[in-house]
Amino acid sequence: MVKYKEKFEEQKVFIDGEWTTSSKGDTYSIINPSTGKSFVKCQKCDVEDTKRAIDVARDAFDNGPWPEMSIEERTKIFYKVTDMIAEKAWEISKLDAMCNGVPVLEHASMTMMLPAHMRYVCAQAKKLVEPKKVSGEFPLDQKVWREPDGVVAIITPWNAPFGECMMKLPPALIDGNTVVFKPASQTPLTTLDLGKMFEKAGIPKGALNIITGPGPVVGVEMAKNTKVDHISFTGEGITGKEIVQNALGNLKKVTLELGGKSPNIIFDDFSVDEAATAAMIGGYFLNGEICIDGSRIFVQDTIHEKFSKKFVELSKSLKIGNALSLKTNIGPLVTETQMEKNLKYIEYGKDAGATLLCGGYRPREGELKDGFFVAPTVFDNVSNDMRIAREEIFGPVLCVIPFSTEKEVIEMANDTTYGLAGAVWTHDKERAVRVARKIKAGTVFINTYHMLTADMPFGGYKQSGWGREMSEQGVEEFTQVKSITADWSGLTKWLMNVIISH
Ligand code: NAD
After folding, report:
1. Contact between residue 326 and residue 105 where contact means Cβ atoms under 8 Å apart
2. Which terminus of the chain has a smaller tally of CB atoms within 10 A, N or C?
3. The domain containing residue 143 runs over which residues?
4. Which pLDDT tens digit goes with each residue over 127-171?
5. Which residue CA neighbors atom 6 of ligand 1 most closely?
6. What is the domain count for the chain?
7. Are residues 83 and 207 in the same domain?
8. Average pLDDT of the residues in 211-224
9. Which residue minimizes the CA distance to atom 34 of ligand 1?
């Protein structure tokens, strides 16, 4: 039996530098999906609480010290937080595993990289502070400045809570914006912890505000509120579209990181063993609850049969268990609803005539009894037009689609409304790059998967989103571009004289 901390204090929200309750005193419970039991209470904020947090952030931007501080002063605070993250990385990983059911080791593999990410973000922001001088045809002094957007509202999903938070919060803050942050209701603990770290590191009051509560209440207000200048959202496409509509009031800037149904393309110059491992790596990370999941596995027909046999063998060997166990490969899905959604898609797959090779059920033996588990599920002979191949399932339910030619697989790979990611597995370098370039997606891996690093831009084509995170673009994303043109040469005076004299 996995041991975990049994007692958690009721969590508060962080507004105007104070840890406080929701104005009405309402709370809600977080359920550990490995056990089905609630273990901590969080504040259920409402529209009034959200407005208050936004007002505070507005005032902190318009009148507070944070936007006026030098990049060096802001970086000092960031470096203190970076050290705290490094120290608490394992604790953070455990908390996220308890809230969302993703195996703790997988959380740790991401958390360990985040101190380096923080330092990278600081270095990029420093580059933006100095204006870029433009030398044009005229004798003018022309400079392009980067300035913070203002008040940034951030909304994140539950699948990689701390990682998602770190993709948005550090660049938004270091650029001098003030922030109102709403983590997913199921997984707010590590974002709240990050707030405590920033508080301890000395962030000025009001620069960072973290509230918890239902998306359709708190999130909607954040999108609608005209005191917000930029809303940065990661989540489902349908929510993203609602945010765009709600943001119209003041035409605030909108950044969207949405879903995917990514092609994982395996050519036959890979051995069957290599191919099956490639499909595992692409498909089962974070229980398959990751936006870039290689959920459509395209396998060349010449190795298809042997591949499927091996892939099923590997899928069946995965250890299903409590997310806190170091032995677990597949944890429970985040909520009962998410589990039911996966089971529903399994029925769609069977009804559509796909071949269910393994999984397809909820395991309930022993300590899995009350958790929200779905066994690793492989459908074979899937056609690209089936619902299971077109819609995001977000779980360990994978589709194998055979193909014969490069042209055919590119067409099928791109026949999707999404465009977030994809992968190509082949030893033929020319073919690898050719196919990677043809896939209409923001991130394509060759002979690897899930290798996201701080210096590579991340974001989607088509309905997978707007804008980019990570990399220098991710830091620029939270700034406005300002052109300042000055004439010290007398050109304007000369022109005025010409106009007047005519
Ligand atoms: P979701 O859209 O249901 O919720 C995301 C966040 O939005 C949560 O904080 C939620 O409370 C809030 N929310 C809900 N309704 C809202 C509304 N009407 N207005 C404003 N906010 C609202 O998504 P989810 O189920 O938490 O996450 C899974 C989805 O996120 C998947 O589609 C996945 O692909 C996507 N995702 C994308 C990326 C990426 O970087 N592209 C990364 C992770 C997850």
Report:
1. yes
2. C
3. 47-257+470-484
4. 999 999 998 789 999 999 999 999 999 999 999 999 999 999 999
5. 157
6. 2
7. yes
8. 98
9. 259
- Residue 6's pLDDT is 59
Are 429 and 475 found together in one domain?
A: no
- Cβ within 8 Å of residue 102, ≥6 positions away: 96, 159, 160, 286, 287, 289, 323, 331
| C-beta of 322 in contact with ligand 1 (< 6 A) | no
Active-site residue identified among 42, 99, 165, 291: 291
- The mean pLDDT value of the chain amounts to 97
Tokens representing residue 41 in the block: 């209470």
Task: Express as a percent the part of the chain with pLDDT over 90.
Answer: 97
pLDDT at 2: 44
Q: Are residues 208 and 325 in the same domain?
A: no
- Alpha carbon nearest to ligand 1 atom 20, residue: 219
Q: Atom 16 in ligand 1: which residue has the minimum CA distance?
A: 215
Polymer length in residues for the chain:
502
Q: Whose CA is nearest to atom 42 of ligand 1?
A: 291
- 291 Cβ below 6 A of ligand 1: yes
Best mutation site among 155, 345, 470 for ligand 1, i.e. most ligand atoms within 8 A of its Cβ? 155
Distance (angstroms) between ligand 1 centre and the Cα of 157 equals 4
In 58-171, where do the E strands start and end? 132-134, 141-148, 151-155
Instruction: Ligand 1, residue 214: give the atom nearest the CA.
Output: 11
Residues 246 and 103 in one domain: yes
Confirm whether 113 is domain-assigned: yes
Is 147 noted as a catalytic residue in this protein?
A: no
Both tokens of 487, joined, read 């004439």
- Ligand 1 atom nearest the C-alpha of 167 is 40
362 and 425 together in one domain: yes
DSSP count for the chain of H helices, then E strands: 16, 20
Residue 332 and residue 243 in one domain = no
CA nearest ligand 1 atom 9, residue:
184
Q: Does residue 292's CB lie within 6 angstroms of at least one atom of ligand 1?
A: no
Model pLDDT for residues 474-486, shown as the tens digit of each residue: 999 999 999 999 9
Distance 235 CA to ligand 1 centre (A): 2
pLDDT higher than threshold 80 for residue 122: yes
For the question of residue 291 being annotated catalytic, the response is yes
Task: Verify that 201 and 65 share a domain, yes or no.
Answer: yes
Cβ of 232 below 6 Å from ligand 1: no
Q: Determine if ligand 1 sits within 6 Å of the CB of residue 420.
A: yes
- Domain annotation covers residue 219: yes
Cβ neighbours, 10 Å, residue 126: 16
- The domain that holds 147 is classified in CATH as 3.40.605.10
In-domain check, residue 380: yes
464 alpha carbon – ligand 1 mean position (Å): 12
| Residue 58: how many other CB atoms lie within 10 Å | 20
Q: Does 293 fall in a domain?
A: yes
3-state secondary structure 116-148: HHHHHHHHHHHHHHCCEEECCCCCCEEEEEEEE
Residues 358 and 436 in one domain: yes
